[in-house]
Amino acid sequence: MRLDLRLLACALFLAPSVAATSPTTDYATAFPLDTHGTGDAFRIEATPVLYAHGKPDAYLRDMVVVNSLGVEVPLAPLAPAPAVAHPYQLHTRLLPVPGEASERDGTGHIRRSSDGSVQIDLGAGELAAKPPRHWIIDARRAISAERLTIDKVNGTDVQLELAVDASNDLQHWDERVSDVTVTSIARGDDAVDNRIIGLSGDPARYYRLRVVGGDVPWDVEHTPGVTVEGSFIDAGDQRMAAFQWVEVNGKADDNHGFVYELPATLPVGAVQVKLAEANGAARVQLSSRGVTDAWTPLGDVTATTVGGQGDGATIATTAGKSLPNTLRIDDTRLHALRLTSIPALQQPPTLRVAFTPDRFAFLAQGPGPYRVLVGSYAARRGDSPVDAALDKLRLDKGPDWQPPLATLGIPAVAAGEAALQPAKVPFDWTKPLLWGVLVLGALLVIGMAVSLLRSAKGEDKA
User: Fold this and answer.
1) Fewest C-beta in 10 Å: which of 28, 269, 409, 422?
2) Could you tell me if 254 and 310 are in contact, meaning their C-beta atoms sit under 8 angstroms apart?
3) Contact residues for 192 (Cβ-Cβ < 8 A; gap 6+)
4) pLDDT per residue over 50-62, tens digit each?
5) Beta-ladder partners of 100
6) CA 167, CA 148: separation in Å to the nearest integer?
7) CB contact at 8 A, 238 and 208
8) Are residues 105 and 183 in the same domain?
9) Digit-coded pLDDT (tens) for 136-177
10) Does 124 or 118 have the greater pLDDT score?
11) CATH code assigned at 252
């Protein structure tokens, strides 16, 4: 009896459990990396082939770098390279704001044309004859102006106290210099020539000179010119320079359009349309599709060809700019494009698709050579503070240093297609075993009850 109770207790409370285990991280494909030498860190730029071997909705989070021992090394997205400042110099006119307009802080009689150039109403008669007290400088683009040099006026002495303001819309002005003296006096050995105004501040297209002291020695018709020096950053040009282009061909669909499958899900930033006809013109509508099956309007292009050459396209862009032959969009991960047109085209145009490749940096931890492993249903790369390590390297190598490029070799099968499939769930024996234990316990309880009843009957008979 006591033995049966002990067995029952063990059966009821010794229910087995399934130990939690971490699945082995497998990746479908391996790319050898050529670092072209040794170093502390390297960068990788994604190619269409690399994108194609990753899981589309993982956006290359299913990618790691391992050393020759198979140990994962620190890897993280690489921040975009800092924008490059280009030197800028322009000799242009000082645009006088005459008479009454000058007295209203230079805001009257001033307009901007559609291209941003300045138009000033000079007035007539006595108003135009008054010496100006304000001048506008159109730098023709937003620049970080560092100095203004006013042309020397032969035979005329100049001594003015000026203030300089900056604006991007001719309406809101930011003061850059409150009081600077410009002097040009020709007196033999006592000659003074100081016509340079130093500046600093955020980029602006328009600069305004205001007289705060002195008499203006020239009139509206004899205003001197000015040289503007500084620098500018063209983020659009820099982005275009970073583009990689792939050419794709289309197939007709059932709705009088053409569908273009990209070689992988790419971060697309521009699409160029080239008509197949030697001489043609069409209004082209582009739609896009990501990993899902839903088509989304992307933009319109008026594409033309003359003599077999694509001579340009008028583009509607998200940034409000226009570039020939190119539909510019914000970087969007796309898997396919669809093209329709008015009038309907008989042959599919060729599309050239530009994408900005994802860039990564990894630390050369452990022995090389290194490999990229990519493509996994479940494995995702963790965050590594690679940026902090790169910042320390830049202390020695210079603030503009970037990790050298490691190029991807020919891909080879690692875990293969199985790594991209959901893991098979092993049969869970817990429930049937638990039910077995419960049934066994119930049978033991019944057996004990029957045994007790029989014992009680035997005692009654006795």
Assistant:
1) 422
2) no
3) 183, 184, 185
4) 999 999 889 999 9
5) none
6) 15
7) no
8) yes
9) 999 999 999 999 999 887 767 888 899 999 999 888 899 999
10) 118
11) 2.60.120.260
What does the pLDDT read at residue 22?
30
For residue 23, being part of any structural domain is answered with no
- For the chain, how big is the Rg over CA atoms in Å? 38
Are 66 and 159 within one domain?
no
pLDDT digits (tens, 9 = 90+) for 253-268: 877 889 999 999 999 9
Q: Are residues 109 and 57 in the same domain?
A: no
Mean pLDDT of the chain: 80
| d(C-alpha 311, C-alpha 332), whole Å | 27
* pTM listed for this prediction: 0.64
Which residue type does 177 have?
Answer: V
Domain region containing 9: 2-18+428-461
Domain boundary among 355, 389, 407: 355
List of E strands, 121-257: 134-150, 158-167, 174-185, 192-194, 196-198, 204-213, 225-232, 244-248, 251-252
pLDDT at 373: 95
Count of domains for the chain: 4
